[in-house]
Amino acid sequence: MRNSWKIRILIGLAIVAFAFFKKCANTEVNEYTGKEQVISMDPEQEIAIGLQSAPQMAKEYGGLHLDNSLQAYVDQVGAKLVDNTIARETPYIYEFHLLADEQTVNAFALPGGQIFITYALYSKLSSEDQLAGVLGHEIGHVIGRHSAERIANSEFWQTVAQGANVGADAGGLVAGIGQNVLLGNGREDELESDNLGVRFMIKAGYNPREMITVMQLLKAAAGPNRAPEFKSTHPDPDNRIEKIEEAIVKYGG
Question: Which InterPro entries match (predicted)?
Answer without folding.
Answer: Mito/Outer_Membr_Metalloprot, Peptidase_M48
